[in-house]
Write a structure and sequence with these properties.
Layout: E1 3-8, H1 9-30, E2 35-42, H2 45-49, E3 61-63, H3 66-69, H4 78-97, E4 107-113, H5 118-133, E5 139-145, H6 148-153, H7 155-171, E6 174-179, H8 190-202, H9 205-211, H10 227-232, E7 236-246, H11 254-257, H12 262-281, E8 294-301, H13 308-321, E9 326-333, E10 338-346, H14 352-376
Parallel strand pairs: 1-2, 1-4, 2-3, 4-5, 5-6, 6-7, 8-9
Antiparallel strand pairs: 7-10, 8-10
Helix pairs in contact: 1-5, 1-8, 4-5, 5-7, 7-14, 12-13
The protein binds guanosine-5'-triphosphate (GTP) and magnesium ion.
Magnesium ion binds next to α1.
Length: about 400
């Protein structure tokens, strides 16, 4: 699957930057592109300058709202992020049209941090513009959920996340959720952590996107997972994860090579299950597989380590976990020394975190309303469709 990636705000742009790195990897490993273009959009000039991989010209690093903010950002007000995107969104549309590989794009992926101002506000506006102009091309989004300490420190973070989620869910074809808190490693500085978190967030996309694009015969699986399969599996709230199990390679005498004992075979199946377990525990947001309406798994391993038994074992296992989901599967005989399983759960009917954001933000909106009422006697007119939350679009 080939994506066109657009990062909005600081968080979104940095993760988009990681996707460029992923594409460099697919170029050197397989000689293919999995990205048809990458763009960073921000109201903050300095943040755009700090990126590493995205093209450094103004067509790839797009400043919006420059006349109003002088390139200094919107200070966490996501209504303003939305407004500036509405005014300057054409710059983004113009830029992506010029990407040389535009017509090979299967889908768009828009990325933003939910808690900020620029990305959180702009993402659903740009998504809407893309949907209107490119009818038939799916628009996916990846929304990063704030760290716990940010939620505690400032209710604005919760409010921004809730309004962002509500708005993007109503326009995008799928909303991938990635919870910063789930990626926290206590052993490094936060800046280092952010970089590592970003790398970990994009990692599960790698095999998924490569599997269907590689045409060298020996790497094409018995059931290749192409862009169509993946797109069929994405709808609404979505989570992604990858798990790995190493394959021990001991020395063998030639006469031992042909024989695979019963025990070895069951060990192989067990390893694949371990990889699937790891993928489930590495999912990008806490959720319950039972709530998924669609699910997908991809088995990536050396061809000789992929057997029908393993594929069947994994299928049965996922069917037990995600009992209400339509399940799609694929395999990717890609060499290497590990068994990797990628899992995607989508059409999630319930995500506790999203519910919590909605509830807490409604309470916040209510107190804001009362404060305004007290001071000015006027009540701001608020859309009330999902628990009193206004929409940004
Ligand atoms: N995973 C990850 N999260 C980030 C990164 N940078 C910021 N965040 C998170 O994103 C949220 C803040 O969003 P930003 O992207 O900084 O905000 P913005 O869109 O630039 O908007 P303003 O700066 O408010 O105009 C917070 O929850 C941060 O923890 C990053 O590089 N990686
Ligand atoms: Mg910013």
């Amino acid at each position: 699957m080939k994506l066109m990636v657009i990062g909005l705000g600081q968080c979104g742009s940095r993760i988009a930057d990681e996707f460029v790195r992923l594409n460099k990897r697919s170029q050197s490993q397989w000689g293919i592109n999995i990205i048809t273009g990458t763009f960073a959009v921000n109201t903050d000039q300095t943040d755009l300058t700090g990126l590493s991989h995205i093209g450094s010209d103004y067509m790839h690093r797009i400043l919006i709202g420059g006349r109003k903010t002088w390139g200094h950002g919107v200070g966490k007000i996501n209504e303003m992020g939305a407004e500036l995107a509405r005014e300057d969104g054409d710059k983004v549309i113009d830029a992506i049209r010029t990407a040389p590989d535009f017509y090979h794009t299967h889908a768009f992926l828009l990325i933003a941090g939910g808690a900020g101002g620029t990305g959180s506000g702009a993402i659903s506006i740009i998504a809407q513009m893309l949907k209107e102009r490119y009818i038939g091309k799916p628009v996916y989004s990846l929304v990063v959920l704030p760290f716990e300490h940010e939620e505690m420190a400032e209710l604005r973070s919760v409010y921004n996340t809730a309004t962002c989620l509500k708005s993007i869910h109503s326009v995008a074809d799928g909303v991938f959720l990635a919870d910063n808190q789930r990626y926290v490693r206590k052993d490094a500085s936060l800046a280092m952590n952010l970089q590592r978190i970003n790398a970990a967030m994009v990692e599960p996309w790698y095999d998924l996107m490569c599997a269907g694009e590689i045409s060298r015969y020996k790497h094409v699986g018995a059931k290749t997972l192409d862009a169509g399969d993946i797109m069929q599996s994405i709808d609404g709230w979505t989570t992604l994860g990858v798990g790995r199990a190493g394959i021990p390679r001991g020395f063998r005498f030639p006469w031992q090579l042909a024989k695979t004992s019963f025990k070895e075979k069951s060990d192989e199946t067990l390893r694949a299950m371990q990889a699937m377990d790891a993928a489930v525990s590495e999912l990008s947001v806490t959720c319950s597989a039972e709530d998924a309406g669609r699910a997908l798994y991809l088995l990536s391993a050396p061809a000789k380590d992929m057997t029908m038994d393993i594929a069947k074992g994994l299928g049965d296992y996922l069917r037990e976990l995600a009992e209400n989901a339509v399940i799609r599967a694929g395999d990717f005989p890609r060499g290497g020394s590990s068994i990797d399983v990628t899992i995607l759960l989508s059409q999630l009917a319930f995500v506790q975190k999203v519910r919590d954001y909605y509830d807490r933000a409604s309470a916040f909106a209510q107190t804001q309303k009362e404060r305004i009422k007290e001071t000015t006697g006027r009540l701001r007119d608020m859309e009330d469709s999902a628990k009193g939350l206004p929409s940004l679009i």
